[in-house]
Amino acid sequence: MLTPISRCTLFNALPGALLLGMLMVTPAHAGVVQSATCGGAGAVKEVRVSDAEGAVAYVTPDVPHRLEIDVVPSSATPALWLVIDAIFSDESVRIVDTEVPDSSVHPGLTYTFGTTITFPSEAFSGKDLMIKLKLSHANGDLVETCSILQIHVNY
């Protein structure tokens, strides 16, 4: 497991069914989940979801799950912009679209960004969805990383 060089707080009130919380240290095991790249000039080193690992992150509904991503940016920027989309039944729902506070980065260093997501049972039990995470320079001139991971919400 990489030692994070920078931790940034992510928070956004959600208009949809997914819930996000403040970045915090949790005792849950954050396992490595496979992700696919969807572009970006930087590199994703690892994506982790608490109490999950492997090709599909099996998560428990109504329980907060820690989501972390280790990235190596390609260039310096004073701030990053985070977009998280949930893709479900051929629909994409934007659940986060915000500047990451205190997110100044430099090329070649590893940074960990994290948040907590809860999947409500009434909306997601027994369903598969994809989560797309995109980190860009806040001024919009460069996408640093883009990753997609598959989630299955248990019953």
Description of the structure:
The protein is mainly beta. The chain has a single domain (7-153), classed as Immunoglobulin-like (Sandwich). The chain is built from one helix and twelve strands. The chain has one helix spanning 121-124, and strands at 7-8, 19-21, 30-33, 36-37, 43-50, 56-59, 65-72, 80-88, 91-100, 111-118, 128-137, 143-153. The strands form two sheets. Strands 1, 2, 3, 5, 7 and 10 form a six-stranded mixed β-sheet that branches. Strand 11 and strand 12 form a beta hairpin. The longest helix has 4 residues, at 121-124. The radius of gyration is 14 Å and the shape is globular. It starts with 6 loop residues before the first strand and ends with a strand. Residues 1-28 have low confidence and may be disordered.
Query: Which percent range describes the beta-strand content?
Result: over 45%
- Residue share in helices? under 10%
How many DSSP H or I helices? 1
Radius of gyration: 14 Å
The SSE string, one letter per element, is: EEEEEEEEEEHEE
Largest sheet: 6 strands, mixed
Shape: globular
User: Which whole number gives the mean pLDDT?
Assistant: 83
Strand-pairing-aware structural class: mainly beta
CATH class assignment: Mainly Beta
Please count the beta strands (DSSP E, at least 2 residues each). Answer: 12
Q: Number of domains in the coordinates?
A: 1
**Low-pLDDT ranges:** 1-28
CATH architecture call: Sandwich
Q: What fold name goes in the CATH topology slot?
A: Immunoglobulin-like
Task: Give the N-to-C terminal Cα separation.
Answer: 30 Å
